[in-house]
Amino acid sequence: MSNDVLNTQGGPERDQYARVLNSNGEPIPHLYSAGELGGICANQYQGGNNLAECLIWGKIAGDRVSLNHDDIAEDVSNTLNGINDLIKGEEKNITLTEDQYLGESNSGIGGKLVVRVTYKDNKIKKVDIVENHESEDFGKRALKIIPHEIEKENSTNVDAVSGASATSCAIKEAVKDAINKAK
């Protein structure tokens, strides 16, 4: 067995203010960059990879983008795309019937994950994912598989979906939270 490390370098060229430069080396208005765009580990978020670069350039980009710019229109739309946890939109109205409980976890790749668990007589009858912001690839597979496995085994002690361990753990954690509320 041998260890390999692959670190790709790429992404947009930027100046000292984190502004993205066009092919002539001039800043593109209102476009800032932080971190690398060339990594092969999308949605896996391996700890520490280029972390300092992302933090430093993220701070610079954030400082610059927050400055008052005269050429930006004042009327900015507040329409949410439904997956942005950073901007609190309308609360979802989740209906609960008898023997149903909500559970939450913030351990997923996309942040907050909410489940509705139907639980009666120490039996997990149904697990519904009512809110999630997980990745569209492996995360979505876990959202389909893990609830079914939990129902079948009547336990959160089920195997994680390969490639979606964070999402799998978040679902199990949210179900445990709901069951704790039932007791």
Automatic annotation (TrEMBL):
Domain of life of the native organism: Bacteria
SMART domains per UniProt: FMN_bind
Domain FMN-binding: 108-182
One term of GO molecular function: FMN binding
Gene3D superfamilies: 3.90.1010.20, FAD/NAD(P)-binding domain
Transmembrane segments: none
GO cellular component: membrane
InterPro entries: FAD/NAD-bd_sf, FMN-bd
Protein name, as recorded: FMN-binding protein
Native organism: Lactobacillus intestinalis
